[in-house]
Amino acid sequence: MNVGLETLTARRQPRRHGHTESEITRRLIEAIFEERLPPGERITESQLAETFEVSRSVVRLSMSKLSEIGVFKKTPNLGYTIAAPTRSEARMMLDLRQMIEPEMVRKIAKANTDADVQSLWEHLDAENKARECSDRSTLVRLSGEFHLKLAECSRNVYLVQMLTQLQVLTCLAILVHAEREVGCPRDEHSKIVQAIADHDGNRAAEEMKHHLQHIAEELQLDVQRNEPSLESAFQWLSRSQRQEI
Ligand SMILES: [Zn+2]
């Protein structure tokens, strides 16, 4: 398993029936990467405790951690729901990724080891294998994890944590907003790795900018659309009520 998720879930927790809190957190993040958890759906402690065969207190720790990073939303009396990022939240995430990831790969291109480059090519091989086998869930997960793999090459644990959060939330935003399948095209990832292997920081940064721009375009975040809100709904309801009177 990649260091990204391990870092996020590194705190030691008591083991119960083979699953620790960090393992549960990691599995839930993997499930989101594989687009298996539906955004906006309610998720309960008892469901997860039963699924992982652990006590609710172990599950509660994991849910609370995912809630801290915005992946689960906690509502008083209602419990937890899986986040369903709005369009403006998705835009902010992609903006932040544009600020971080091009500079990250520029730095990696300047200082990387042969082992880093080898592990990135191996990751792309795994992506290609999943693509050839039409294993969509694995491909979607590996595509997301590619960005975390890059963060690991930076050897900055804070960057790994931040990108894990942004990547998980981007996956949920894609599920909510993309009108068709959005993925990371194979040639875009390989162009980034080639630039890193060539120690060409400027080219790596440009390739990453282009790649993130591509994801934002697929999400159509620049198209102005009205997002439903309770406030505007109440305004509309009060107007229609006055007209009836
Ligand atoms: Zn990508």
Give an overview of the whole structure.
The protein is mainly alpha-helical and 245 residues long. It folds into two domains: 3-82, Arc Repressor Mutant, subunit A, CATH 1.10.10.10; 87-218, Up-down Bundle (Four Helix Bundle (Hemerythrin (Met), subunit A)). 69% of the residues lie in helices and 4% in strands. The protein contains eleven helices and three strands. It has helices at residues 3-8, 21-33, 45-52, 56-68, 87-110, 114-132, 136-154, 157-177, 186-197, 201-218, 230-244, and strands at 42-43, 72-75, 79-82. A three-stranded antiparallel sheet has the order 1-3-2. Strand 2 (72-75) and strand 3 form a beta hairpin. Helix 5 runs antiparallel to helix 8 (157-177). It is globular, with a radius of gyration of 20 Å. The protein starts with a helix and ends with a helix. The model is unreliable at 9-16 (pLDDT under 50). The structure holds zinc ion.
